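pinned: reference chain
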Amino acid sequence: MNGAHGSDIDRVRRLQSLQIDRGNGRRPFPWGSMVFAFVVIGGVLGFAWQYPWLVSAEDAPVSRPVVSADGQLQVPIAATVVQSDWIVSGYLVARRESLVSSEVTARIRRLLVTEGVQVAEGQVIAELYGTLADADLSIAKARAIAAERSVAAAQAELVEAESVVERTRKLVARNLSSPADLGKDEARFQVLTAEYEKAQADREMVALEADRAAAVVAMHTITAPFAGTVSNCAVEVGETVSPMSGTGSARDGICTIVDTSSIEVELDVPEKMLRRVPMGTKVPVVLDAYPDDVLIATVREIAPVVSREKSTIKIRLAFGESDPRLRPNMAVKVNLQDQRAETSE
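pinned: its structure tokens
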């Protein structure tokens, strides 16, 4: 009996040794799995933030412009830049912008404009010192007067010689003079004719020199090539301007004039998005300086070539009317929504 009871006790002890200790029924918290999940989610969000163009927005609900019956593009207030399906950044540029310079090297005597001033076409904006040019013009005018008097003297001598020839011919006909005298008078007449023609040529040459001297003097008065706004004054009174670059301290320009009515948008559009902006397409434009206002521009020009390095094509958008808020180099954002359906309609 005791032997059988002892064997039962041994079997019970072996079965108890095979049981798993569960620690009062509690499992350890999976910290490693939670950290891995957070890392994966953060990586996906960061990728989407750095490369937003890889995320297609064709199916996203956006507020698109509506073309009215009269062809005007109506952009609802809700159609902000954030809601668009494709945004391209660009800048405002002026189609007519000129750095006004001088055709001669001289110092500024008077500067008649400042930055922000409106100028008309042909308005004087600066005057240069031109003492030598004025002296050359005076000399040329004096030469012109002398040449005119030389022509008058040669003409008088020619008229006298012609009368002498006629008188000698009459005397020869009456045998009162010899043919030798007639030949001498005719030769003198031919010489005076040549001198008269030379005097006329000298007068024309001196007149051209006077015109050239007057043109050089006129170069010392700088005028506006077209109507616009002075955007930058590069010189002050007393400074030297020169049409040639690399002339030491001489400036190569006086001021910059911008035709504000020619300001337009310049964009570098990815070539794969070119289908969104055919010629004549009206698109909404938002200035970074005025984010609450939506302006309408029309595709005016598409560059004939594509940049191989950037795979972009340059396009220009023109505004329907000028806006005093528009200034060159302002940053803009253009909503290039897919308007193939509106264009076909």
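why pinned: The first strand starts at residue 66 and ends at 67. Residues 53-84, 340-345 have pLDDT under 50 and may be disordered.
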